[in-house]
Design brief:
With about 150 residues, this protein is of the alpha+beta class. It has a single domain, classed as 2-Layer Sandwich (Alpha-D-Glucose-1,6-Bisphosphate, Chain A, domain 4). About 25% of the residues lie in helices and about 50% in strands. The protein has a seven-stranded antiparallel beta sheet with strand order 1-7-6-5-4-3-2. Strand 3 and strand 4 form a beta hairpin. The chain is globular. The mean pLDDT is about 95.
């Protein structure tokens, strides 16, 4: 039997942050704040419908690059974007992502859902879940130390 040329997976990650919705939202919407938790890898940030975001980082495997396009931004409620991940210039996942925000007992419930097409060879859903789990942990660390008022 031949190896599949692609496959589809969905991942969902849910986090509860003790910070208010406005504070969590601003960490995604304000460039300086997003760079604080997303890291130096964020090279381009245009947070608006049809705006683009680009990032890249290096590991022992090579150069990982990401290209994102925002489709819907409903303030303090939802962000919908599509993005691709490439390793050394070869795209291996293409995803449609929804990040939903909701009040939760004075804090914020964030639900990250990603539907992806995996183009082997790829680290696939496990790689995306590992990466985004780490980023959402980094967001928690940033929110714990950012005492400025949300923008």
């Amino acid at each position: 039997m031949a190896k599949p040329t692609h496959e589809h997976e969905t991942i969902t990650i849910e986090r509860i942050y003790p910070n208010c919705l406005a504070h969590v939202w601003s960490a995604w919407a304000v460039e300086e704040k997003k760079k604080a938790w997303f890291g130096d890898r964020l090279a381009e940030f245009d947070f608006r419908p049809m705006g683009a975001e680009r990032s890249a980082f290096d590991t022992d495997m090579g150069r990982h690059s990401n290209e994102t396009r925002y489709f819907e931004i409903k303030e303090r409620e939802r962000i919908i974007f599509a993005y691709s991940m490439a390793l050394n210039g070869r795209v291996h996942t293409v995803s449609l992502t929804t990040v939903a925000f909701a009040d939760h007992d004075g804090g914020t419930r964030l639900t990250y859902t990603e539907q992806m097409c995996i183009i082997p060879p790829s680290d696939g859903a496990a790689g995306r879940k590992h990466g985004w789990s780490g980023l959402l942990e980094s967001l928690a660390g940033y929110l714990a130390t950012d005492v400025r008022l949300p923008s």
